[in-house]
Amino acid sequence: MNIMTAPITTLINSAYSAFNARDIDAALTTFHPQILWPKAFEGGYVKGHAEIREYWTRQWNEINPKVEPISIKQRQNGIVEVQVHQLVTDLEGKELFNGSVKHIYTIQNKLLAKMDIELA
């Protein structure tokens, strides 16, 4: 595995920090305008900033996810693997998921362009 460059590490950490703070505008600055983002609990993808804004707004009215990067690794072809600890609760605090997963990113023009999820 290649050592991650500081700009990619900063990009990844900024995205997760904004997500956890529920700051959609800050998160979108790390995303390519045509980003493909998985709808983890529904299947399929949303595309672009407007669809992500709508998806996250709806999601955060139903569940409370918190996602913390554990490690960031470079894969082949510029793909970035981020192992995360993910805690998802309902709005009353009941735990729905607590564990590790891998978020797999494609980066384009120094922005996150696609994310996929793999079980850790």
Helix content: 25-40%
Q: What is the total number of structural domains?
A: 1
Q: Give the count of helical stretches.
A: 3
Flag low-confidence runs. Answer: none
Q: Report the biggest beta sheet as strand number plus sense, adding barrel if it closes.
A: 6 strands, mixed
In round numbers, the mean pLDDT is 94
CATH class designation: Alpha Beta
Shape label: globular
H and E order: HHEEHEEEE
With strands numbered from the N-terminus, the spatial order across the biggest sheet is 2-1-6-5-4-3
Query: What fraction strand?
Result: over 45%
Provide the CATH architecture: Roll
End-to-end distance: 17 Å
Pfam families: SnoaL_2
Protein name: SnoaL-like domain-containing protein
InterPro entries: NTF2-like_dom_sf, SnoaL-like
Domain SnoaL-like: 15-111
Give structural notes.
- The protein has 120 residues and is α+β, with helices and mostly antiparallel strands.
- It has one domain (6-119): Nuclear Transport Factor 2, Chain: A.
- 28% of the residues lie in helices and 48% in strands.
- Strands 2-1-6-5-4-3 form a six-stranded mixed beta sheet, with helices on one face.
- The radius of gyration is 14 Å and the shape is globular.
- The mean pLDDT is 94.
- This is SnoaL-like domain-containing protein.
- Pfam families: SnoaL_2.
- Residues 15-111 form the SnoaL-like domain.
